[in-house]
Amino acid sequence: MLVGDEASRSRVPSIQPATDDDFGREFLELKMSVAVVASLGEAIDHVNRFGTGHSEAIITTDLDSARRFTREVDAAAVLVNASTRFTDGEEFGFGAEIGISTQKLHARGPMGLRELTTYKYVVWGDGQVRT
Asked: Where is the Aldehyde dehydrogenase domain positioned along the sequence (predicted)?
C-alpha cells in the first residue's frame, strides 16, 4: 500500500492520502509513504524532519547528489543505491545484533556486544606525575 502527499497523489491516483505521522514511522508491513519534492535540498530537509535517525537511503545516478545526501542527512547509516535493510549488526560485521540505537553517543546504529561494553582504565604507578 502507498500513502502520499498531494503531489504524489496527483501523479498516481491510487496512492492513499498520507498524514505527517505516516512520514515519521516504520510501518512493519508492505506499506510506504511517498512525498514529491522539488529539489535535493527539500528531500534532505524532509528526511531530516521525518526520518528515523537510523537508516536513510537515496537512489541516484548523480554522484554529487549522493555525496551531498550522505553529508547532510542526520542518520546512523546513510545508504546510496542500496536497501536500508543492510543496516544490520550482522551485515556490518558486528556479529548477532543485540539492538539498535539512533542516539549519537555512545553507540549509534546497529549494535553488537562491543557497543554495549563500557571500559574501565586501570593505571598503576609508583608516584609518577605528568608535567
From this structure: 32-93
Q: In what order do the strands lie in the sheet with 16-17?
A: 16-17, 2-4, 32-34
The residues with which 73 forms a beta bridge, in sequence order, are none
Looking at the domain that runs over 37-116, which CATH code has it been given?
3.40.309.10
Q: Which residues contact 68 (CB under 8 A, 6 or more apart)?
A: 40, 44
Cα(44)–Cα(34) distance, rounded to whole angstroms? 14
Q: What angle do CA 18, 22, 26 make, to 5 degrees?
A: 150
Q: Strand, helix or coil at 65?
A: helix
- What would the mean pLDDT of 71-100 be, rounded to a whole number? 82
